[in-house]
Target: TRAP transporter small permease protein
Amino acid sequence: MSAVTRLWCRLEEALVAFLLAVMTLITFVYVVVNNVYAVFYYLADRSAFLEEPLLAMGDGLLFVSQEMTWSIALTKAVFGWLIFIGLAWGVRIGAHLGVDLLVKTFPPALRKAVALLAVGICIFYCGLMTYSSQQWVAALMNANIGAEDLDRFGLRQWHIVMIVPIGFALMLIRFVEVFLRILRNEQSGFGGHSEAEDALRLVDGQHGTERQP
Model:
């Protein structure tokens, strides 16, 4: 593996971890802020000495909670980025078990041709989606429409959805890598070897059980 490929893989993993952490942190803060202010109101009702500071803190947290309507929209946007970055990552680690399982059901003599055909279809689909989604992003750039609940931060819709062509382009590159490895006989399917083989053994075991008298 070249230094560039290793760097790309590390950046991909770091970005997935970062997006997951951001999404979790935003959700956690919103849930806490949206519920903790009631505690201060409860304590203020039962403490005459600290009533005013507790009410002030409760009012402050309630205000922050009401102002954090943007957190839901931001969480959805981050989740969308996580999905499309994760799709390319899934191709790299061979997580597409369904297609790999289908390829491995064919005899070894046909397996390579079927695998190349399956990966070729995936490459065509990713290329088509990369081009069409890029046209969609370009139209949104020209329209310059603000993102719902996020326009206060200067975010436009195209800032969020530009991950769609980026994600499909990354998947396209990953599928090309898989295609070349299959062509060079470095792998026989999509890369999910152990999972697919375990599933096939499970199916064979069930059929064997059914045939027993």
